[in-house]
TrEMBL record:
It comes from Candidatus Falkowbacteria bacterium RIFCSPLOWO2_02_FULL_45_21. Its main location: membrane. GO terms for cellular component: endomembrane system; plasma membrane. This is Copper-translocating P-type ATPase. GO terms for molecular function: ATP binding; ATP hydrolysis activity; copper ion binding; P-type divalent copper transporter activity.
Length: 697
């Protein structure tokens, strides 16, 4: 899989592989490995090992003596390390040399620079060693032309580094796999109805206002509105909603979602880059190109580590030369220090986790516009909810129906609904809906008359019927009986709206209505409390309504009668207490408050991904997703800290060993082993980051 797409989204750490691919590293690794084997076999260190173990191995080729194994000797064999080492350096090592040139040109020396200095030092010293020995003795006088050279260290170092990068890139390439899958959600073709005929066209031929036919089980090809038909649509792949969503005429549908059992005719509203799916991809890419504070810190640390490595390497080289060590030994220590201090894992630790977390967020129905916003979520002390449309549905619902002694609740509801059947008022709609849910039959109202400021009046089955508020009862001289007064008073304290039903100037009963509290809101507030986050509510409603809702949901604090332009002041008020605040609103009326808050969350954005005031956008209108944001933020931060530990922790022990601090005790960290440790650290960091994908939010 090409790695290029990943580079732009993961910044410095992962962008080291600009233009590279896993296949390229894999190919270079195998070629380098095959060439490294003979280089190692003909190295002095290998022959010394076999000489030491003596007769434990069978006698070998032409160079064998006394039963001690040595590799076959042939004309020019002494130069095999030079030839094969040069091929490995230029073929396998070129990727690091080219990367170093890009880093130096960009004035950001890092991992590639260190590796390049290390392999270049080893290679050019080895060339010097070979040619100086050539001048001292004939090539055929013992066959030890490369005795002081570091070719085996060079080739093993490059081979191990290539293996490490290949394994790392395999892990990295999966980091955005789920996001790339989004682009595969769209079908290749669409069935368009033109001039009464259905024809199959490619998606590129679709135009806005086209009507497409989507058969049962097929993918929806473009954003649009249902012109005809009803069906359940599976939107889980773009909104995270697990249950199929019921769709009917005029409902919006999203490109890439899967139609259920019904056939749909859809009028196309958005195509190409205008679709919701394209917006999601764009937002995630923007989020991944932005940097978190922790990443900025790790980038600085990587730069400092590079400087420390180069300085430490030079000091190590000079110190060993001053101590009288052989040049080959001192260069080997320089190479080991440079390799062990490579900040590759450090550069990868944060951006790879951030890339996976923003993708994971998109899969769960919330879009991260700014990576700093997701990072801030873990530190939030309180969530300030806008009441209407967030904690409540923003629409009236019947809370209770009461009847007087001689009448039934169904009779009260039936009369009020029959009077309200023709009204478009939200309260009237709520009464009618409740009656239909109860299975009541509405009766025809005649001679309908609106009573200004009081209610409505009509004839139902030739009997006078009226419905309205307290002003209606006052106008016709009816008092509230004792059995209803207590219940009505309690409902009024809660801020509920009361409607009375009157027939032939006799009170049948009353209906209490209020903005419907979402069941999901109870779960959301409870989940936030469990996570140690307080809840607060802000509303333009009266004190009574605000108090009732906050008591129902067990909200810690509320602000009532707050005008839209005053919401940001309430956010500042909470922040003045030292609290980190997340503001949850619709992203339009609440824009100033969302911007003022430490974390702005736009809820119920649907297919609108262009909300500038929010750092995080929730596709669904479900407050339970707020706790998911906090949880993902904490999971992401934990992974970043773990990765920073793996990326830097081993340096504390390995750097002194690489420099040869314990050489007097015979403990040395050879360049090849340094490469193994550095690569292992990088691979651990990559695998640990990818494990985030398996964690549930």
């Amino acid at each position: 899989m090409d790695h290029t797409a990943h580079d732009t989204s993961t910044s410095q750490g992962v962008g080291k592989h600009a233009g590279h691919s896993t296949a390229m590293f894999f190919r270079k690794f195998w070629v380098s490995l095959l060439l490294t084997i003979p280089v190692v076999l003909y190295a002095d260190v290998t022959q010394r090992i076999f000489s030491a173990i003596g007769g434990s191995l069978p006698a070998g080729g032409q160079g064998a003596s006394g039963g001690k194994w040595s590799p076959p000797d042939f004309p020019g064999s002494a130069y095999m390390p030079l030839v094969f080492g040069s091929i490995v350096f230029f073929y396998g090592g070129f990727v690091f040399l080219a990367g170093a040139w890009r880093e130096i040109r960009g004035r950001l020396p890092g991992m590639m620079t260190l590796i390049s200095i290390a392999i270049s030092a080893a290679y050019f010293w080895s060339l010097y060693a070979v040619f100086t020995r050539l001048l001292r003795q004939p090539a055929d006088s013992g066959g030890q032309a490369g005795a002081e050279a570091l070719f085996w260290e060079l080739t093993t170092l490059i081979t191990i580094m290539l293996l490490g990068h290949w394994l790392e890139m395999r892990a990295v390439s999966g980091a955005q796999g789920a996001l790339k899958e989004l682009s595969k959600l769209l079908p290749d073709t669409a069935e368009v109805i033109r001039s009464g005929k259905t024809e199959t066209v490619s998606l590129s031929e679709l135009r806005e206002n086209d009507t497409v036919l989507v058969r049962p089980g097929a993918k929806i090809p473009a954003d649009g509105a249902i012109a005809d038909g009803e069906s359940d649509v599976n939107e889980s792949m773009v909104t995270g909603e697990s249950k199929p969503v019921s769709k009917k005429k005029n409902d919006q549908v999203i490109a890439g979602t899967i139609n259920g059992d019904g056939a749909l005719k859809i009028r196309v509203t958005n195509i190409g880059e205008k679709t919701f799916l394209a917006g999601v991809m764009r937002l995630v890419a923007e989020a991944q190109s932005s940097k978190s504070r922790l990443q900025m810190l790790s980038d600085r640390a990587a730069l400092y580590l590079t400087i420390i490595a180069i300085t430490g390497g030079i000091v190590t080289l000079i110190a060993w030369l001053a101590a009288g060590a052989e040049v080959g030994f001192a260069v080997a220590r320089l190479v080991a220090v440079l390799v062990i201090a490579c900040p590759h894992a450090l550069g990868l630790a944060v951006p790879l986790v951030a890339s996976i977390s923003t993708t994971k967020a998109a899969q769960n129905g919330f879009l991260v516009r700014q990576r700093l916003a997701l990072e801030a979520a873990r530190t939030i002390d309180a969530v300030l909810f806008d009441k209407t449309g967030t904690l409540t549905k923003g629409e009236f619902g019947v809370q209770a129906v009461w009847s007087t002694d001689s009448h039934s609740e169904d009779e009260v509801l039936e009369l009020a609904a029959s009077l309200d059947a023709l009204s478009e008022h939200p309260i009237a709609k709520a009464v009618v809906l409740k009656a239909k849910e109860q299975g009541l039959t509405l009766k025809r109202a005649e001679k309908f008359e609106a009573l200004k400021g009081r209610g409505v009046k009509a004839l139902i089955e030739d009997e006078e019927a009226m419905a309205g508020g307290p002003a209606l009862l006052e106008s016709i001289g009816i008092s509230i009986p004792g059995e209803l007064s207590g219940q009505i008073q309690d409902a009024s304290i809660k801020g509920q709206t009361i409607i009375f039903a009157v027939k032939n100037r006799t009170l049948l009963g009353a209906i209490a209505l209020a903005d419907i509290i979402r069941e999901e809101s109870r779960e959301a507030v409870r989940a936030l409390k469990d996570a140690g986050v307080k809840s607060a509510m802000i509303t333009g409603d009266s004190e009574d309504v605000a108090k009732w809702v906050s008591l129902e949901l067990d909200i810690d604090e509320y602000f009532a009668r707050v005008l839209p332009h005053q919401k940001s002041e309430k956010v500042k008020e909470l922040q003045a207490r030292g609290l980190k605040i997340a503001m949850v609103g619709d992203g339009i009326n609440d824009a100033p408050a969302l911007t003022q808050a430490d974390l702005g969350i736009a809820i119920g954005a649907g297919t609108n991904v262009a909300i500038e005031s929010a750092g995080i956008i929730l596709v669904r209108n479900d407050p339970r997703d707020i706790e998911k944001i906090v949880k993902l933020s904490r999971m992401t931060y934990a992974k970043m800290i773990q990765n920073l530990f793996w990326a830097t922790g081993y340096n504390v022990v390995a750097l002194p060993l690489a420099a040869g601090v314990l050489a007097f005790k015979g403990i040395l960290l050879e360049p090849a082993l340094a490469a193994v440790l550095m690569s292992a650290s990088t691979i651990i960091v990559a695998i640990n980051a990818v494990l985030l994908r398996r964690q549930k939010i």
